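Morning!

As promised:
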Amino acid sequence: MKWLLPAAIVLVTSALGILPAWREQQHAIGRVAMVTCAEDVGNEAAGSPSQTLRFQLAEEVAGSDIGITADQLVALGFDRADSALLGVSKPPAGRWPAPRPAWARLRPDSSGGGRLVVEELGASRAGVWRDTTSIVARVRVGWSFRPVPDVAAAADSTPNPGRRLERRVMRFGVLELIPAALHITAEQDRVLRQVKAVSGCRGSTTRAVIANGPAGGLWIERVVRP
Amino acid sequence: MASQAQSRASAIVGFRDELARLQAEGVSLDPAATEAIRAHHDALLASFARQEDVDLTAAAAQLSIGMRIATVLGAAALSAAYGFFVASVWGNLTVAPQLLLVTLPPIIMAFLTDFASRREASGYIASIMATVAVIAFWIDLVAMGSLFNLPDSRNILLVIGAFSLALAYLYRLGLPLLGGIGMIGGWLWSLAAITRGLWWRDGIDGMEPLLVMGALCMVMPRLLPRPAGYGPIWRVTGALGLSIALLTLGQNGQTSSFGGINQSVLEGVYQVAGAIVFPWLVVVGLRRASRSITIIGTAFLSMFLLLRLHAWFWDYLPKWLFFLLVGFLAVLVLLLLRQLRSRKVLRT
């Protein structure tokens, strides 16, 4: 009967993983509807047979043109000196400040709901304000060396667009939603594939309703046909 | 499945070969004493054969190596078969059957490990069953995490490591022990993220935790002396962890968790530690008659010396002189090792 010990490890771990998540999914406290299509479906978790749906994140924190202030950085656990990196056009030679876990309030963007806009960041879940039309989720925040969004348009007036160099700067933002993608059922997967087969993904108005639990859990509640 | 029984059986076989040679060369031996030793050895070998799988000839030992390779291949093939089967039926199932499909297999495989270990003394079949159980448990946790959108967690490494070590110690299996050491090691390594306020995956960049874990693995055989056959696995894993961490830290201070300290000082400290630890590993390997630890110590000592010579002299010496220096050093190491070997041979 020695095998009962490893069997108990499997059962107890499975119960500890499933039960809190299952209970949370009975009490959604926020919902957002995101435009989606079959092209967003993938298999994100290595080793998992489940299909998942990925959503694009808008990096910037609303109300700040360069992303975030030094005080906000400190509140998230970064050094005050790290704020000197904001907008720098050359990446640091040494080690970059390591990404940190944080909580974010997210809402679909106003231009059609294809991206999640980061409205607020906080070090803890309690530090982020929430309402029923947004979701509060765990994220990883940190630094990236990215193109400046508005420079590309402005540079159209340059004499030789073919030789135009993209201007890149150090930017702060959300690097990853945790979990990075959300599980969809086989039925939801079929709906998304049917829509793609009939009308394609360009200009899709199919929406996935993401529900948010009190402990920050996220799940796809339903996929709404156009 | 190296064990004390196997090493005693090998010694007996070697003793008998030498005895036969002595008799062939005309050395006179007391027949009564020779017969008494033979009878005692026969009884010992019979008892070893009853207890576990021991190789009594060189051919049997080679076959055992083949069986170990077949064990790894078998475990990999069965795990792949299970993974592909789950993927093929997953989309047609609702949540409850999906959960059963991933939760039951590790339990069934744990039971089959128990069954196989009782039916087959060598442990090869049990090893395959246990390895498939560990991989099935991994698939179970990843699939559940994905099904319920759970955040990825370091604790997956802890529970799979605990499951793996439970199978290894309950049924005396080497392959799950290696998996267990790797998983628990990964979990301990990720704990470094807590002190720095990072997400667990981002904490696995500093090399110091690997250094501590390597040292811990080296002393584990003293803390967990049984089964005796596990000592070499712990020590070899520890020697590897220790050596990789020291070589990396000595070469690049940016891989240290102590980011605020002057990098040149950090690298210097780890270089001094490497200069002490790598030769020490060679000595430990020789003392314990462990070929693996001796090879690890020698290989890392050579790499360490080569990297140091490169860092110190490459920019200042002509290329021919640099390589002459490396060649001279290699001869010096060879002479030193030969000296150590002859001392060891004379002592034994």
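The radius of gyration of chain A is 21 Å.

Hope this helps with the figure draft.
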